[in-house]
Amino acid sequence: MKKLVFVIIIMVVVTALFAGGNSEVVRTIDEWEEWAQLGEYRPAEDDWDAIVEAAKVEEELVVYSFSSRVFDFGRTFYKKYGIKVIAHDMSTPSLLEKLVREQDAGIFEADIILVDDIPTLYNEFLSEGRLYRFIPTDLMDVLIDEAKTAPLAINHYGSRGIAYNSEFYSEPPIDSWWDLTRPEWKGKIIMKDPMNSGAEFNTFATFIQHHVDMEEAYQDEFGEELIKSYDVENAGYEFLKRLMANDLILMSSSTPVMKAVAAPGQTDPPLGILGFSKLRTIQEEKLTGAFIEDLSPVTGFRTTTIMAVGAFSKHPNAAKLMIKWLFGGDNPTPDNLAGYAPYYVLGDWAVRTDLVEPEGQKPISEMDFYVEDADWLYNNAIKVRDFWLQNQ
Amino acid sequence: MSNIALEHREVKGSPFLRKLVRNLTMPQRIMAFLLIMLLIFFVIMPAINLVYTSLTFSLSDRRLPQVVDRGIEVVPGEFTTVHLERVFWSKLTNKMFLIPLLNSLMITFGLTALSMIIGSTLAWLVVRTNLPWKKGIANFASIPYIIPSWPIALAWISVFKNTKIGGSPGWFQFIFHVAPPDWISYGILPIIICLSLHYYAFSFITVSGALASIDSRLEETAELMGASKSLVMRKITLPLVLPALLSAFILTFSKGIGTFGTPAFLGLPVRFFTLSTQVYSNVKNNLAGDAYLLAIVMILISSLTIYMNVKVIGARKSFVTISGKGFRANPVKLGKFKWVIFALVIIFILLFVIGPLYILTWQTFMERDGDYSLSNFTLHYWIGPDGALGKAGQLLGEGQAGILRNGDIWYAAWNSVRLAITVSLLAAFLGILLGYSIVRGRGTKLASTLDALSFAPYVFPGIAFGAVYLSMFAKPFGPIPALYGTFSLLVLVSLAKRMPFSSRTGTSAMLQVHKELEEAGELVGAGFFKRFTKIIYPLTKSGFIAGLLLSFITTMRELSLIVLIVTPKTKVLTTMIFRYAEGGYHQYGDAITMFVVIISLSGTLLIRKYQGTGLAKGIGG
Lengths: 392, 621
Known about the structure:
A: 2 domains; twelve-stranded mixed beta sheet; 14 helices; B: mainly alpha; MetI-like fold; 68% helix; 0% strand; globular
């Protein structure tokens, strides 16, 4: 018995030490592209029968996702195709950092990523060949123009805006982003830590990009010219500085933010800066919250969620199939949405023309959102981050 | 090969060369030499790499405002002071370096003081007084040592969160209908309290050990000679336990400054940041150069504190307290306060040891946060199936199964367990090799170098050591391929960090085996390997096993050390808990925490079974 235990332990140690080493044949990226039928070797028409068959042989699929809804579409994908989805849910900065380090170390785990930080994706990942574009050719006709020409496949648009407790306030308590800097909201604004998030960070950066609008909005709100702090470049930075000085509260994720804003029975509920799609938790958690549409200078910020195939993916066909699944498949209806189901909610907008919006949702073209400027955001990200750090 | 064999061998050349060859071919010398090389490679070189990386450009630096504004061309690998400037001499210095530094110091000194007070008081009560039910109290008081430190913070949040930050009320507000103020809910005070409630176990265990070895007649004699109780305490008891207090201080301080989970959870809402959270955030945001400089600062603080303490206290005389015969430990009579103190100790244990575990367990049965009614009871987070619906028809936890039916959790559990087993076996083995080389080579430069080097990882706070390994092994280094994302890297970093403890356990075990025993083996012609397996190992087995199981527990609960280098494929239970807690899925996080606690408790019971002595031997990590 003792000997047996000893042998088992030794075996565990040995496998533990040597497992994880890459024993596969090293391929060049060109060979991989040819094998995976991606990049240069992408055929003009996708042969879905062949892809499905090959995907089933691949048996599994590793997904890195910034959205916890990955567990939902992973489960339905498995039910449909019998392909096991190994889902890893991470924050955007973590996901991107892990992906770069893994690839640099020669580890190519991620078959597909789902993430929302297009400035970094377009400028660092796509350009360095870390990710591959895959948009099913047979879906091209039903996609909106922007999604057809985008550098990577867009799954959906999301948003960032301001939510309030609709039980306590019968109507929206504010009408301008500048209201957040007023003393009566001190210590009563809550959001996810932008240092741990792509979209929250890009929202603020975009306000800085549109500083002229912000300056005008200030004048409209307070009826006087904005007097900026001595160390501040423009109205966008001034807004951020004043917002942070107003005791902004940070959380590690947006789920507790929605709960803090919209838990029923509160006597002094805070405002929250977060994604409109968190509205979906309202029914689940018996919350009472709503977003504010009439805000100056804009309602909020539009985010873009990207799907892409990882370089040297070992399961490229399963990854392609998953992208199609996430697009909603061939003929999605509100009752039959394939992998898009978890995103068919208020606050998320599909990029296809053949799908009606969820009940009660305006088309995104009618929403007053700033749209992310990938290049500007990429070039200014660290400067804005440094400013944030100085004031936090 | 043995000394005797060597004596008969003809060695030509000068006496010096002969001596050198003989010295170098003695087994402990060869071993010591190899171990030193190993330590240099896995501890010293990574530290040098850390400095190097923080003083050179990486590609991502081309977006730094300091680079863009001055039009500097970024050549990766080229020397630059831009990170030095950013961290120590720019507009960022205050928020990135000085304030976090101050916060880290306040937390570390605060938690070290508080945990030493709690730990030593409990130790004194349990060892030196007539307190009832001492054995039970000692057992319960050791529990925080075996569970991870930050679940206490999670439990704290569930109790003290207020509606302003938490949305749904915490336990405190639910029971008393008053919202606790922010400074109780979040920030420095709860961080210090929560960390102290974990780290006091270090002081408790080391001071208990020291107190148990003091002959109470020393104190009684002084009292007979007219010394007051406080004089006896100051002049006799305190000096005798000082070495134990010192080692508790060093242990707590160096762990405390590198701790990550608790400050991350309790500090963020009120924007209270520490060096450890800044290191983490900078690494995540692609600013490794800045992060590494902060890690270096942490290492320097830790080294300086330890050095000063060793200098100040180490210079004092040491005392021989065990006189050989007639050892007595008469308990101090607590008199009329006995039951009051007993009640206080029990309350402490109920509130701060059992309490957090109870709360965490309870939370795993709540379908929705903050609803304490029975109708909210669910077993989903433990055994629910995929895609289960809650009572309001909602998908629970984005459709994830309960932890016991979730393949992902079992995968992480398997990673945790195999990591803990691998590390504990290798650490125990290395410990014996280190102990053998250090003890047998006593008095030689080689042995003292090895002794000092094996102590080096002590001064690397957990998250800084993780950063060191991230910097070193993300790319191929020497004969070693890039290890990032492999399980071996987790094994290496955990093993290297445990080196001081392994070496100490090994040394003390080896001291028990007198050289004569080994020489007897040599005389009958036993080779080194045979002597090792037939004489040394059987005699040191008990220490070997105690160290083994302790490494198992400490590796199981580690977060700060590995949080930067764990990848999706190598995820372990502790990083899963962190991710769930961060994402707001408390029930899953709490359930996995209890899972870790159960595994660790089973490990401790194993120690008991083999050892009978509990945790006191080879404590650390």
